[in-house]
Amino acid sequence: MIKKLTNVTLNHNTIEIDGIDSLVSVEGRWLEAALLFDERYILLFLIEDYPFEGEDELFIYLIDTQQNCTVDQAKISRMCRSGIFSDLIIHSKNTISFEFMVEGGWTLELFKTPKKEIRHLFSGTLSLVVKRPFSLSRYFNVIQNVQ
To answer: How far is CA 85 from each of CA 57, 96, 135, rounded to the nearest angstrom?
Structure first.
């Protein structure tokens, strides 16, 4: 189950929960949304804007509150493109959608247990919009909705 949180804040690149430093560092200047998943994970959406370059980046982090660390992350950006994070909708117990940078927006599916991820090992290029660090497993998948 996914629930919106109001007790999560950003203090210089560190996440605070109920005013207590989580010691989890993140990129991004503005915390746009925080969601609780499966009573264990916190899903964060943060924006970094570069006003003189006309470019925005959306950072997505999944934090495990039991291990107090980031278990998965993604970044959505495109050179010389700005975007506004909006229309966050919870669709089911593990799926949300949101708007950022592209028409049609995005769908993000959270997994109760990590899934093996080897597609990026065989593809010639990674997405020009979604960037993710190397990992053999994923806790969520984010895809662009087709219009």
So the answer is: 10, 13, 26
